[in-house]
Amino acid sequence: MSNFIATPTRTKSILNKYRFAFKKSLGQNFLVDVNILENIIRHAGINKETGVIEIGPGIGALTEQLAIHANKVVAFEIDQRLFPILNDTLAGYDNVSLIHQDILKADVVQAIEEHFGSNHPIHVVANLPYYITTPILMKLVRDKLPVESITVMIQKEVADRMAAKPNTKNYGSLTIALQYYTTAEVVMTVPKTVFMPQPNVDSAILKLTMRETPPVGVDDEEFFFRIVKASFAQRRKTLLNNLKSFLQDAYDKELILDLLDKANIDGKRRGESLSMDEFARLANTFWRARN
Ligand code: SAM
Q1: Domain extents for the chain?
Q2: ipTM confidence score
Q3: Residue 282 alpha carbon to ligand 1 centre in Å
Q4: Distance (Å, rounded) from C-alpha 230 to C-alpha 289?
Q5: What is the pTM (predicted TM-score) of this model?
Q6: Which of 37, 87, 147, 246 ranks highest by number of CB atoms within 10 Å?
Q7: Could you tell which of 79, 81, 190 is best to mutate to test the pocket of ligand 1, judged by most ligand atoms within 8 Å of the CB?
Q8: Distance (Å, rounded) from C-alpha 132 to C-alpha 136?
Q9: Is 92 exposed, middle or buried (0-12, 13-18, 19+ CB in 10 A)?
Q10: Residues paired with 52 in a beta bridge
Protein backbone atom coordinates (compact mmCIF):
# COMPACT_ATOMS: atom_id res chain seq x y z
CA MET A 1 0.00 0.00 0.00
CA SER A 2 1.28 3.44 -0.89
CA ASN A 3 1.55 6.07 1.78
CA PHE A 4 0.53 8.88 -0.54
CA ILE A 5 -1.54 11.75 0.88
CA ALA A 6 -4.33 10.96 -1.60
CA THR A 7 -5.64 7.87 0.17
CA PRO A 8 -8.65 7.81 2.54
CA THR A 9 -6.55 6.44 5.42
CA ARG A 10 -3.66 8.89 5.17
CA THR A 11 -5.97 11.87 4.56
CA LYS A 12 -8.07 10.98 7.63
CA SER A 13 -4.98 10.63 9.77
CA ILE A 14 -3.64 14.04 8.63
CA LEU A 15 -7.02 15.69 9.28
CA ASN A 16 -7.17 14.11 12.75
CA LYS A 17 -3.62 15.00 13.63
CA TYR A 18 -4.25 18.68 12.92
CA ARG A 19 -7.94 18.66 13.98
CA PHE A 20 -8.67 20.22 10.62
CA ALA A 21 -12.31 21.21 9.99
CA PHE A 22 -13.30 21.62 6.31
CA LYS A 23 -14.53 25.05 5.28
CA LYS A 24 -17.37 24.53 2.86
CA SER A 25 -17.22 28.22 1.96
CA LEU A 26 -13.71 27.64 0.52
CA GLY A 27 -14.78 24.67 -1.63
CA GLN A 28 -12.64 22.22 0.34
CA ASN A 29 -13.19 18.77 -1.16
CA PHE A 30 -9.92 16.87 -1.05
CA LEU A 31 -8.98 14.11 -3.50
CA VAL A 32 -8.38 10.67 -2.01
CA ASP A 33 -7.67 8.60 -5.14
CA VAL A 34 -4.17 8.45 -6.63
CA ASN A 35 -5.47 6.98 -9.93
CA ILE A 36 -7.52 10.11 -10.60
CA LEU A 37 -4.51 12.30 -9.83
CA GLU A 38 -2.37 10.30 -12.23
CA ASN A 39 -5.01 10.78 -14.90
CA ILE A 40 -5.02 14.54 -14.35
CA ILE A 41 -1.23 14.65 -14.56
CA ARG A 42 -1.08 12.46 -17.69
CA HIS A 43 -3.71 14.53 -19.51
CA ALA A 44 -1.96 17.75 -18.49
CA GLY A 45 1.23 16.47 -20.17
CA ILE A 46 3.40 16.91 -17.08
CA ASN A 47 6.97 15.58 -17.07
CA LYS A 48 10.31 16.33 -15.41
CA GLU A 49 10.85 19.32 -17.73
CA THR A 50 7.60 21.08 -16.86
CA GLY A 51 6.80 23.75 -14.32
CA VAL A 52 3.35 23.70 -12.71
CA ILE A 53 1.14 26.36 -11.17
CA GLU A 54 -1.35 24.76 -8.78
CA ILE A 55 -4.40 26.50 -7.28
CA GLY A 56 -5.60 25.35 -3.86
CA PRO A 57 -3.22 22.58 -2.71
CA GLY A 58 -5.40 21.70 0.33
CA ILE A 59 -3.37 19.19 2.36
CA GLY A 60 -1.19 18.42 -0.65
CA ALA A 61 -2.82 15.41 -2.37
CA LEU A 62 -2.32 16.69 -5.92
CA THR A 63 0.75 18.76 -5.03
CA GLU A 64 2.61 15.62 -3.92
CA GLN A 65 1.93 13.83 -7.22
CA LEU A 66 2.91 16.97 -9.15
CA ALA A 67 6.14 17.23 -7.15
CA ILE A 68 6.95 13.64 -8.13
CA HIS A 69 6.18 14.06 -11.84
CA ALA A 70 7.07 17.71 -12.59
CA ASN A 71 10.21 19.80 -12.40
CA LYS A 72 8.79 22.39 -10.03
CA VAL A 73 5.43 23.30 -8.48
CA VAL A 74 4.22 26.71 -7.30
CA ALA A 75 0.93 26.50 -5.40
CA PHE A 76 -1.46 29.31 -4.34
CA GLU A 77 -3.57 28.62 -1.23
CA ILE A 78 -5.93 31.04 0.51
CA ASP A 79 -6.44 29.15 3.79
CA GLN A 80 -3.69 29.99 6.29
CA ARG A 81 -4.61 26.95 8.45
CA LEU A 82 -3.30 24.63 5.72
CA PHE A 83 0.29 25.94 5.74
CA PRO A 84 1.59 24.08 8.82
CA ILE A 85 -0.04 20.93 7.43
CA LEU A 86 1.48 21.39 3.97
CA ASN A 87 4.91 22.07 5.46
CA ASP A 88 4.62 18.70 7.18
CA THR A 89 3.00 16.60 4.39
CA LEU A 90 5.30 17.96 1.66
CA ALA A 91 8.48 18.05 3.78
CA GLY A 92 10.07 15.35 1.61
CA TYR A 93 9.79 17.40 -1.60
CA ASP A 94 12.20 20.26 -2.31
CA ASN A 95 10.62 21.40 -5.57
CA VAL A 96 7.41 22.92 -4.15
CA SER A 97 6.84 26.61 -3.32
CA LEU A 98 3.70 27.63 -1.44
CA ILE A 99 2.17 31.09 -1.76
CA HIS A 100 -0.44 32.30 0.72
CA GLN A 101 -2.72 34.30 -1.56
CA ASP A 102 -6.20 34.47 -3.04
CA ILE A 103 -5.70 33.33 -6.63
CA LEU A 104 -8.22 35.94 -7.81
CA LYS A 105 -5.99 38.69 -6.42
CA ALA A 106 -2.63 37.15 -7.30
CA ASP A 107 -0.28 38.41 -10.00
CA VAL A 108 0.30 35.00 -11.55
CA VAL A 109 2.35 36.34 -14.46
CA GLN A 110 4.82 37.85 -12.01
CA ALA A 111 4.92 34.66 -9.92
CA ILE A 112 5.76 32.68 -13.07
CA GLU A 113 8.58 35.07 -13.93
CA GLU A 114 9.92 34.91 -10.38
CA HIS A 115 9.77 31.15 -9.92
CA PHE A 116 10.30 29.72 -13.40
CA GLY A 117 12.10 32.33 -15.51
CA SER A 118 11.54 31.51 -19.17
CA ASN A 119 13.16 28.08 -19.12
CA HIS A 120 10.28 25.68 -18.74
CA PRO A 121 7.04 24.89 -20.45
CA ILE A 122 4.47 25.74 -17.78
CA HIS A 123 1.04 24.25 -17.13
CA VAL A 124 -1.72 25.06 -14.66
CA VAL A 125 -3.10 22.01 -12.86
CA ALA A 126 -5.73 22.11 -10.10
CA ASN A 127 -8.66 20.57 -8.34
CA LEU A 128 -10.48 23.90 -8.23
CA PRO A 129 -12.67 25.27 -5.42
CA TYR A 130 -16.07 24.94 -7.14
CA TYR A 131 -17.60 28.14 -5.79
CA ILE A 132 -15.29 30.23 -7.98
CA THR A 133 -14.48 27.94 -10.94
CA THR A 134 -15.59 30.38 -13.64
CA PRO A 135 -13.97 33.56 -12.21
CA ILE A 136 -10.68 31.68 -11.77
CA LEU A 137 -10.63 30.26 -15.30
CA MET A 138 -11.71 33.57 -16.86
CA LYS A 139 -8.95 35.37 -14.95
CA LEU A 140 -6.32 32.85 -16.05
CA VAL A 141 -7.23 33.04 -19.73
CA ARG A 142 -7.73 36.81 -19.80
CA ASP A 143 -4.42 37.44 -18.02
CA LYS A 144 -2.79 35.72 -21.01
CA LEU A 145 -0.46 33.70 -18.79
CA PRO A 146 2.64 32.30 -20.45
CA VAL A 147 1.34 28.74 -19.94
CA GLU A 148 0.66 25.97 -22.45
CA SER A 149 -2.43 24.51 -20.85
CA ILE A 150 -4.82 24.54 -17.91
CA THR A 151 -6.06 21.14 -16.68
CA VAL A 152 -8.61 21.29 -13.90
CA MET A 153 -11.11 19.25 -11.95
CA ILE A 154 -14.39 21.20 -11.96
CA GLN A 155 -18.17 20.59 -11.81
CA LYS A 156 -19.17 18.41 -14.78
CA GLU A 157 -21.98 20.79 -15.71
CA VAL A 158 -19.59 23.74 -16.04
CA ALA A 159 -16.99 21.64 -17.92
CA ASP A 160 -19.70 20.61 -20.42
CA ARG A 161 -20.64 24.26 -20.98
CA MET A 162 -17.03 25.32 -21.48
CA ALA A 163 -16.32 22.57 -24.01
CA ALA A 164 -19.70 22.70 -25.79
CA LYS A 165 -20.31 22.73 -29.55
CA PRO A 166 -22.85 24.98 -31.36
CA ASN A 167 -26.45 23.73 -31.54
CA THR A 168 -26.34 22.03 -28.14
CA LYS A 169 -28.05 23.06 -24.91
CA ASN A 170 -24.70 23.61 -23.20
CA TYR A 171 -23.42 26.09 -25.82
CA GLY A 172 -23.56 29.67 -24.56
CA SER A 173 -21.62 32.84 -23.82
CA LEU A 174 -19.33 30.95 -21.40
CA THR A 175 -18.41 28.54 -24.22
CA ILE A 176 -17.41 31.41 -26.52
CA ALA A 177 -15.57 33.26 -23.74
CA LEU A 178 -13.37 30.23 -23.00
CA GLN A 179 -12.96 28.97 -26.56
CA TYR A 180 -11.88 32.39 -27.80
CA TYR A 181 -8.67 31.93 -25.76
CA THR A 182 -8.34 28.12 -25.64
CA THR A 183 -9.41 24.83 -27.13
CA ALA A 184 -11.48 23.04 -24.52
CA GLU A 185 -11.91 19.32 -23.98
CA VAL A 186 -13.60 17.28 -21.26
CA VAL A 187 -11.10 14.45 -20.84
CA MET A 188 -12.80 12.42 -18.12
CA THR A 189 -15.83 12.42 -15.85
CA VAL A 190 -15.16 11.68 -12.20
CA PRO A 191 -17.40 10.12 -9.52
CA LYS A 192 -18.12 11.90 -6.22
CA THR A 193 -16.57 9.00 -4.29
CA VAL A 194 -12.99 10.17 -4.94
CA PHE A 195 -13.44 13.26 -2.75
CA MET A 196 -13.47 13.84 0.99
CA PRO A 197 -16.01 15.17 1.86
CA GLN A 198 -18.04 14.22 -1.22
CA PRO A 199 -19.38 17.21 -3.19
CA ASN A 200 -23.07 17.42 -4.17
CA VAL A 201 -22.35 17.59 -7.88
CA ASP A 202 -20.60 15.39 -10.44
CA SER A 203 -17.12 16.39 -11.54
CA ALA A 204 -15.02 16.26 -14.67
CA ILE A 205 -11.47 16.93 -15.76
CA LEU A 206 -11.33 19.79 -18.28
CA LYS A 207 -8.25 20.50 -20.38
CA LEU A 208 -7.87 23.98 -21.87
CA THR A 209 -5.02 24.35 -24.37
CA MET A 210 -4.03 27.98 -24.86
CA ARG A 211 -4.36 29.33 -28.39
CA GLU A 212 -1.49 31.41 -29.76
CA THR A 213 -3.98 33.72 -31.45
CA PRO A 214 -7.78 33.88 -31.23
CA PRO A 215 -9.59 31.72 -33.84
CA VAL A 216 -11.47 34.75 -35.21
CA GLY A 217 -10.50 38.36 -35.94
CA VAL A 218 -12.64 40.87 -34.03
CA ASP A 219 -12.44 44.65 -34.29
CA ASP A 220 -13.27 45.21 -30.63
CA GLU A 221 -13.10 42.34 -28.12
CA GLU A 222 -15.36 43.97 -25.54
CA PHE A 223 -18.08 44.66 -28.11
CA PHE A 224 -17.73 41.11 -29.48
CA PHE A 225 -18.30 39.59 -26.03
CA ARG A 226 -21.23 41.96 -25.42
CA ILE A 227 -22.90 40.87 -28.67
CA VAL A 228 -22.34 37.21 -27.73
CA LYS A 229 -23.86 37.75 -24.29
CA ALA A 230 -26.82 39.62 -25.75
CA SER A 231 -27.44 36.85 -28.29
CA PHE A 232 -27.88 34.35 -25.46
CA ALA A 233 -29.75 36.71 -23.10
CA GLN A 234 -33.00 34.81 -23.58
CA ARG A 235 -32.26 31.46 -25.15
CA ARG A 236 -35.77 30.95 -26.57
CA LYS A 237 -35.79 34.35 -28.30
CA THR A 238 -34.56 34.81 -31.85
CA LEU A 239 -31.29 36.56 -32.51
CA LEU A 240 -33.21 39.56 -33.88
CA ASN A 241 -35.27 39.96 -30.71
CA ASN A 242 -32.30 39.54 -28.40
CA LEU A 243 -30.28 42.08 -30.40
CA LYS A 244 -33.21 44.50 -30.49
CA SER A 245 -33.48 44.55 -26.70
CA PHE A 246 -29.76 44.94 -26.29
CA LEU A 247 -29.03 47.48 -29.03
CA GLN A 248 -32.20 49.55 -29.02
CA ASP A 249 -30.49 52.75 -27.91
CA ALA A 250 -27.92 52.79 -30.67
CA TYR A 251 -29.53 50.89 -33.54
CA ASP A 252 -33.17 51.00 -34.71
CA LYS A 253 -34.98 47.90 -35.92
CA GLU A 254 -34.48 48.69 -39.62
CA LEU A 255 -30.76 49.14 -39.14
CA ILE A 256 -30.51 45.89 -37.17
CA LEU A 257 -32.31 44.02 -39.96
CA ASP A 258 -30.09 45.65 -42.53
CA LEU A 259 -26.90 44.77 -40.66
CA LEU A 260 -27.98 41.16 -40.04
CA ASP A 261 -28.54 40.95 -43.77
CA LYS A 262 -25.14 42.48 -44.47
CA ALA A 263 -23.53 39.94 -42.12
CA ASN A 264 -25.47 37.24 -43.98
CA ILE A 265 -27.07 35.94 -40.78
CA ASP A 266 -30.78 35.17 -40.51
CA GLY A 267 -32.31 37.07 -37.60
CA LYS A 268 -34.80 34.24 -37.05
CA ARG A 269 -31.97 31.97 -35.89
CA ARG A 270 -31.20 31.48 -32.20
CA GLY A 271 -27.87 32.41 -30.62
CA GLU A 272 -27.03 28.77 -29.94
CA SER A 273 -26.85 28.05 -33.70
CA LEU A 274 -24.11 30.59 -34.44
CA SER A 275 -20.49 29.51 -34.78
CA MET A 276 -17.70 31.67 -33.36
CA ASP A 277 -16.96 32.84 -36.94
CA GLU A 278 -20.53 34.01 -37.34
CA PHE A 279 -20.48 35.85 -34.00
CA ALA A 280 -17.30 37.60 -35.12
CA ARG A 281 -18.88 38.58 -38.44
CA LEU A 282 -21.98 39.82 -36.64
CA ALA A 283 -20.05 41.86 -34.08
CA ASN A 284 -17.71 43.37 -36.70
CA THR A 285 -20.61 44.37 -38.98
CA PHE A 286 -22.43 46.12 -36.12
CA TRP A 287 -19.24 47.70 -34.81
CA ARG A 288 -18.25 49.11 -38.22
CA ALA A 289 -21.69 50.64 -38.73
CA ARG A 290 -21.11 52.87 -35.72
CA ASN A 291 -17.33 53.45 -35.70
N1 SAM B 1 -5.79 20.27 -4.23
C2 SAM B 1 -6.44 19.68 -3.07
C3 SAM B 1 -6.94 18.31 -3.41
O4 SAM B 1 -7.11 18.05 -4.60
O5 SAM B 1 -7.17 17.52 -2.51
C6 SAM B 1 -7.56 20.56 -2.55
C7 SAM B 1 -8.63 20.97 -3.55
S8 SAM B 1 -10.01 21.79 -2.86
C9 SAM B 1 -11.24 21.35 -4.07
C10 SAM B 1 -9.80 23.51 -3.22
C11 SAM B 1 -8.68 24.22 -2.48
O12 SAM B 1 -8.65 25.59 -2.93
C13 SAM B 1 -8.82 24.28 -0.98
O14 SAM B 1 -7.59 23.95 -0.40
C15 SAM B 1 -9.19 25.75 -0.68
O16 SAM B 1 -8.76 26.20 0.59
C17 SAM B 1 -8.46 26.45 -1.82
N18 SAM B 1 -9.03 27.77 -2.19
C19 SAM B 1 -10.32 28.18 -2.10
N20 SAM B 1 -10.46 29.43 -2.56
C21 SAM B 1 -9.22 29.84 -2.98
C22 SAM B 1 -8.72 31.05 -3.53
N23 SAM B 1 -9.52 32.10 -3.79
N24 SAM B 1 -7.39 31.12 -3.81
C25 SAM B 1 -6.57 30.08 -3.56
N26 SAM B 1 -7.00 28.91 -3.03
C27 SAM B 1 -8.30 28.78 -2.75
Answers
A1: 8-210, 221-290
A2: 0.99
A3: 39
A4: 18
A5: 0.96
A6: 37
A7: 79
A8: 6
A9: exposed
A10: 73, 123
